[in-house]
Request: fold
Amino acid sequence: MVSDFSGRWLAKLDESVFVSRTPQRLSAEITQSLDQLHVEMHVSFDGSDDSRMVFDASIVDGDEVHSGSVALARWMGSDLVVDMRFESGGEEVALRERWSLSGDGTRLTMAHKQDVLAGQTVIFDRQ
Reply:
């Protein structure tokens, strides 16, 4: 069974674990189709204006690679593993998140286990 992560999500900061500073607010809007993922995240710290991060990912089968893509996603059962590459401070950063939904589809977990944010787990509630 394939999960549908589409929707508006608000982070439960008190239930999440951050490896760096905890934001005051974190939200995500996700649009998912059969082979594409569009993600828009908003984060604010210490009363500052929201920072916005937007990325698109191709959802691929197995070890398929799309050259030029900065984000790819693969199904692992009903979970989606999202790999992202981007440049920060002149260096390339690689992140891997494992997305999972609760049984009733109202809670999204984004967990980092094998990257620079290893140990970070963000819990979102569907809005």
Notes: The radius of gyration is 14 Å. The mean pLDDT is 90. The first strand starts at residue 7 and ends at 11. The beta strands are 7-11, 25-32, 36-44, 51-60, 71-76, 79-88, 91-101, 107-112, 121-126.
